[in-house]
UniProtKB/TrEMBL annotation:
Region (Disordered): 70-102
Protein name according to UniProt: Uncharacterized protein
Native organism taxonomy: Eukaryota, Viridiplantae, Chlorophyta, core chlorophytes, Chlorophyceae
Length: 121
């Protein structure tokens, strides 16, 4: 159970890292857009270079977005598996507790019968 909690904690940390990466990408995209606005008065070759850089950023953004989506799916699947395992463990523990209670009840009943059989002094 503790191992499941550690895995869930690690998955949450990975998701937070991924969200931080996405924020950085959005900042880069905003920077690229502001550079686009500033380069309207630049020579043609600078504009072409800027467009190439922006295209590279967009490709990187798409790749990172795809990775983020894949990681989200993996995290979702891991959480579901962990929840299923935890639920299975809970059910097994409930069953064990039920069996232990039945055994204790039988033992108590047996002890009571034995005490009732003993002659009172």
């Amino acid at each position: 159970m503790e191992m499941m909690e550690e895995r869930l904690s690690a998955a949450n940390a990975a998701e937070e890292d991924m969200l931080a990466d996405m924020r950085a990408i959005k900042e880069q995209l905003a920077s690229a857009q502001s550079q686009l606005a500033l380069t309207t008065s630049n020579p043609v070759w600078l504009e072409q270079e800027r467009q190439e850089q922006q295209q590279q950023r967009l490709v990187q953004h798409r790749c990172l977005e795809q990775q983020r989506q894949e990681q989200q799916q993996q995290l979702k699947q891991q959480r579901q598996e962990q929840q299923q395992q935890l639920e299975q463990q809970r059910q097994e523990q409930q069953q064990q507790l039920g069996q232990q209670r039945q055994e204790q009840q039988k033992q108590l009943e047996q002890q009571l019968k034995e005490q009732q059989r003993l002659p009172s002094t």
